[in-house]
């Protein structure tokens, strides 16, 4: 049987040639993302701004959005934010909570559901979420902290396992990806909620797989080819791992794409964000995290023993014993 | 590579077999599942977002708790100063105030100051491990005693109140008769309530929200209602409004502030009927201390009125026609059977020691949950089939090995989740699909490495050997970063996200095991028996 090869054998693409263009593009994209978040803002869900959100599913033709908005406004809970889900018959209706009075806030959820049922007798309310201002502030804070900790923790791990330049490279790349994901949420105005933070954490965890594989190969080649210039060496490492990078990305894209199309619409935004993260991740492990190493002057000396001779051998053995540990 | 010891093969096979066996119950319908022997009755729990149900996060009003603590201590002070019954050892006090979170009062006779302090020492206790007391007692100006709650005392009071509140909520929710509710304390001042299957949390919220603080207080017969309304309430009394629909036209009563008997002294409450007119009433019974107080007060105050106050609202203020000695009484009002029953439940399960408010509420209907499961399952199956096909087309025989490993991986994840009684949530399903995509990564790494080594002209055995050993390093590092991210998610996330983190973590561990160890076993077996000189990869 002839096997499929997604990437031809012995590619020799000069990826590093594009590093300046790619970096410029990445910086521009990051700046645009930050600007978008600043200007357009994120469509924060009740998890992070407080308020209440009701998922409504229409069994028949959905009334025009403006009509719904007006009728929800009549309930007396203020301006409603209406968002469509993946399917065309389900929407989420969001309103703020009454200020101050806790008892009134507790009633508001029921009031909204009752109001919707009265205005649209055929509609079904699938889920009701109410989050108080205090809780939403806490969720936002812990979300931000855990994201920052994840990025730092992973970078420190890379630093410990490799060299400091690699740690910086990983951090830079993670920042790039997180910024672009935020930009994605700002552009699409998909609801940014607890699930989105989970998506970001997943991206932070998974997208680094690629980088680690490339870095691992760079480390190996740095020891193998002491005399080679750094840029050809980085190119070689990327090309050697290219078929794996592409294959894994294709597998992930297939799995996530299926989930996006056939999966529950409730987690559409979540899946879309991870899908984007995988996509951007493939690009940035090739054209982001490797060029950083050039600027940070990773060279043949990076893995040369500084304390004792024979460190290289130790590394090699350590490499094998990792395998033992895994098995 | 070739020496894959027999014990290892047996060990791995046992693990895989157990994985398959324990994943089966999760797929069985409810009826078949119940017929299984009890040790096999382990299945993956469905989270509220899949099974449908209500999640409530309640927060205690700590300021209210402090107020209660203060007023309880005020009562204690009064009782302590009154001294033993019959003995002539009262200590006269005055100007008792609770302003600023402190209790301050004047001891009229300076000679009794030390005695007063000693009595209070007996009433306050140690709190915490440092030997700190729960109240500081100071003598100011040689005439006043000032009591301030210590921070250890406050912490202890909060912890105690929260534990009690959790227990009470537990009992109330269970009285609703719903299945498998979860009620746990969270953080310093919160309680999480999760009730699977519950669609409308209104009744639940009402039941929990009720502080049901029942008090019996005397009506201040000397107060003039009109004067009181104008703001001239006699010292030691206050205006208390009637509950909706009660009071026969009167909207309030002027009641003594002092609580005669409080809800804690209640030992039973149940719905019954008044014999005369068959109206639903709530019958209550006091404990012995409550009974004797009630007997004493009713004996002394025949002809006067007392009020039953529930949550700061007067339910009724009947006259005392005769001393009530048995410790039983009836609360009548315009009850329906249901509302009398609800009141009885909340009275019976005791008063919440602190006011709780709902700060977060999430409800998902079972239909939406079922829809999510169905779509998630379809997506999961299609994703699996697609990835399996891709692996086979790209890696041939080695792809099949990876695919078998992937199937074992799915079984193992389910088995481990079932064994730990872990909860599968909607993001958890996404985590599952993601794991399928990512699990093959390890095999991609290994197989690509084998291809590379073959291209470099290595012999088959050596290439496979190097493929596994060289790839393992990157596989290990990559998975550690995933575990870092997943553990932060577990720490940060609430329900559904925790579920996602759990699936992710379990998936990472099992995928390394199946993708590296299990495929290695297959490959080793194949190489040993067939001894191929070339391989198609």
From TrEMBL, chain A:
<feature type="transmembrane region" description="Helical">
    <location>
        <begin position="198"/>
        <end position="218"/>
    </location>
</feature>
<keyword id="KW-0472">Membrane</keyword>
<feature type="transmembrane region" description="Helical">
    <location>
        <begin position="21"/>
        <end position="39"/>
    </location>
</feature>
<dbReference type="InterPro" id="IPR022645">
    <property type="entry name" value="SecD/SecF_bac"/>
</dbReference>
<keyword id="KW-0653">Protein transport</keyword>
<comment type="function">
    <text>Part of the Sec protein translocase complex. Interacts with the SecYEG preprotein conducting channel. SecDF uses the proton motive force (PMF) to complete protein translocation after the ATP-dependent function of SecA.</text>
</comment>
<dbReference type="InterPro" id="IPR055344">
    <property type="entry name" value="SecD_SecF_C_bact"/>
</dbReference>
<dbReference type="GO" id="GO:0015450">
    <property type="term" value="F:protein-transporting ATPase activity"/>
</dbReference>
<dbReference type="GO" id="GO:0005886">
    <property type="term" value="C:plasma membrane"/>
</dbReference>
<dbReference type="InterPro" id="IPR048634">
    <property type="entry name" value="SecD_SecF_C"/>
</dbReference>
<dbReference type="InterPro" id="IPR005665">
    <property type="entry name" value="SecF_bac"/>
</dbReference>
<dbReference type="InterPro" id="IPR022813">
    <property type="entry name" value="SecD/SecF_arch_bac"/>
</dbReference>
<dbReference type="Pfam" id="PF07549">
    <property type="entry name" value="Sec_GG"/>
</dbReference>
<feature type="transmembrane region" description="Helical">
    <location>
        <begin position="268"/>
        <end position="296"/>
    </location>
</feature>
<comment type="subunit">
    <text>Forms a complex with SecD. Part of the essential Sec protein translocation apparatus which comprises SecA, SecYEG and auxiliary proteins SecDF-YajC and YidC.</text>
</comment>
<feature type="transmembrane region" description="Helical">
    <location>
        <begin position="144"/>
        <end position="162"/>
    </location>
</feature>
<keyword id="KW-0811">Translocation</keyword>
<dbReference type="InterPro" id="IPR022646">
    <property type="entry name" value="SecD/SecF_CS"/>
</dbReference>
<keyword id="KW-1003">Cell membrane</keyword>
<protein>
    <recommendedName>
        <fullName>Protein-export membrane protein SecF</fullName>
    </recommendedName>
</protein>
<dbReference type="Pfam" id="PF02355">
    <property type="entry name" value="SecD_SecF_C"/>
</dbReference>
<comment type="similarity">
    <text>Belongs to the SecD/SecF family. SecF subfamily.</text>
</comment>
TrEMBL record, chain B:
<dbReference type="GO" id="GO:0006605">
    <property type="term" value="P:protein targeting"/>
</dbReference>
<dbReference type="GO" id="GO:0005886">
    <property type="term" value="C:plasma membrane"/>
</dbReference>
<dbReference type="InterPro" id="IPR022813">
    <property type="entry name" value="SecD/SecF_arch_bac"/>
</dbReference>
<comment type="function">
    <text>Part of the Sec protein translocase complex. Interacts with the SecYEG preprotein conducting channel. SecDF uses the proton motive force (PMF) to complete protein translocation after the ATP-dependent function of SecA.</text>
</comment>
<dbReference type="GO" id="GO:0043952">
    <property type="term" value="P:protein transport by the Sec complex"/>
</dbReference>
<keyword id="KW-1133">Transmembrane helix</keyword>
<dbReference type="Pfam" id="PF21760">
    <property type="entry name" value="SecD_1st"/>
</dbReference>
<dbReference type="InterPro" id="IPR048631">
    <property type="entry name" value="SecD_1st"/>
</dbReference>
<feature type="domain" description="Protein export membrane protein SecD/SecF C-terminal">
    <location>
        <begin position="355"/>
        <end position="526"/>
    </location>
</feature>
<feature type="domain" description="Protein translocase subunit SecDF P1">
    <location>
        <begin position="162"/>
        <end position="221"/>
    </location>
</feature>
<feature type="transmembrane region" description="Helical">
    <location>
        <begin position="426"/>
        <end position="446"/>
    </location>
</feature>
<keyword id="KW-0811">Translocation</keyword>
<feature type="transmembrane region" description="Helical">
    <location>
        <begin position="400"/>
        <end position="420"/>
    </location>
</feature>
<feature type="transmembrane region" description="Helical">
    <location>
        <begin position="474"/>
        <end position="493"/>
    </location>
</feature>
<keyword id="KW-1003">Cell membrane</keyword>
<dbReference type="InterPro" id="IPR048634">
    <property type="entry name" value="SecD_SecF_C"/>
</dbReference>
<dbReference type="Pfam" id="PF02355">
    <property type="entry name" value="SecD_SecF_C"/>
</dbReference>
<comment type="subunit">
    <text>Forms a complex with SecF. Part of the essential Sec protein translocation apparatus which comprises SecA, SecYEG and auxiliary proteins SecDF-YajC and YidC.</text>
</comment>
<dbReference type="InterPro" id="IPR022646">
    <property type="entry name" value="SecD/SecF_CS"/>
</dbReference>
<dbReference type="Pfam" id="PF22599">
    <property type="entry name" value="SecDF_P1_head"/>
</dbReference>
<dbReference type="GO" id="GO:0015450">
    <property type="term" value="F:protein-transporting ATPase activity"/>
</dbReference>
<dbReference type="InterPro" id="IPR005791">
    <property type="entry name" value="SecD"/>
</dbReference>
